[in-house]
Amino acid sequence: MLIAGNWKMFKGPAETGEFCRALREADLGTVDVVVCPPYVSLAEAVTALATTEIGVAAQNVHWADDGAFTGEISAPMLRELGVYGTIVGHSERRQYFGETDDTVVRRINAALEHGLQVIACVGETEAEREAGETEAVLRRQVGAIRDGVAERDELVIAYEPVWAIGTGKTATPEIAQEAHAFVKTILDVPVLYGGSVKPDNAGALAAQPDVDGALVGGASLDLKSFATICREASHS
Ligand code: PGA
Predict the structure, then answer these.
(1) What is the reported pLDDT for 166?
(2) How many Cβ atoms sit within 10 Å of the Cβ of residue 182?
(3) Predicted model pTM
(4) Fewer Cβ within 10 Å of end Cβ, the chain: N or C?
(5) What H or E segment, with its residue span, contains residue 158?
(6) pLDDT the model gives residue 169
């Protein structure tokens, strides 16, 4: 069971250091724990969490090792910092920054080649779910990853229905289970659930047989709620 905190564009280096030093002392149950701070705070997180089992991952990575790609960060650069993994293809990147299934695959391959663990995000929008297109969207997004990525040992999928992200509308455990089982028929890797995971729903979601963890946004920014989510997921 993996619980990853996606901090998005929150917490600069000072706040990150403070949070991670407190996280070291917190009771996180028995799950694997990862935090994903913004790029500028990664070094601080790596330092503050050194000698612990808590992993530090980035929120994105470029496909090239280096080059004329203004504003991008490469996998070797992340490795040099001591970062252990990265999120790729988050719906906010797909929606606002032109991420496509093709660029997602390129980023995943670069990350895996350089020894980074990857959390690759997929999920349908509200309009797609209402139009009955959830399976078609997942088949396209997960199928692109299956067809484009050969080495899958360090690959995890996060099923994050876009309508549940930051909205307080969580998928029911049954909806999550159904989608996770479907994703695994396409690509058999661990699948995390993401989208308004909170202390009071983490246990029920994690109890589903095909839910292998959670990618937590808003609720991962508060130490008490993040630690509670980790403990709740440990019980299931
Ligand atoms: P949320 O975000 O928990 O705030 O809904 C999840 C995510 O976007 O990874």
Answers:
(1) 87
(2) 17
(3) 0.97
(4) C
(5) strand 155-159
(6) 85
Interval 203-227: pLDDT, tens? 999 999 999 999 999 999 999 999 9
Predicted pLDDT of residue 22? 98
Measured from the CB, is residue 218 less than 6 Å from ligand 1? Answer: yes
Q: Looking at ligand 1, which residue's alpha carbon is closest to its atom 9?
A: 217
Q: Residue 104 has what pLDDT?
A: 98
d(C-alpha 139, C-alpha 231), whole Å = 33
Report CA 109 to chain centroid distance, whole Å.
16
Ligand 1 contact via 170 beta carbon (within 6 Å): no
Query: In this predicted structure, what is the pLDDT of residue 54?
Result: 98
Whether the CB of 16 sits within 6 Å of ligand 1: no
Single-letter amino acid code for the residue at 217? G
Single-letter code of the amino acid located at 122: V
For residue 197, the CA-to-ligand 1 centroid distance in Å is: 7
Q: What is the pLDDT of residue 170?
A: 86
Indicate the helix (H) or strand (E) that contains 36.
strand 32-36
**6 ligand 1 Cβ < 6 A:** yes
Q: Could you write out the DSSP letters of every residue in 176-231?
A: HHHHHHHHHHH--S-EEEESS--HHHHHHHHTSTT--EEEESGGGSSHHHHHHHHH
Provide the phi-psi class of 211: left if phi over 0, else alpha when psi is between -120 and 50, else beta. Answer: beta
DSSP summary character for residue 116: -
Residues of the chain under the 50 pLDDT cut:
none
Ligand 1 atom nearest residue 92's Cα: 8
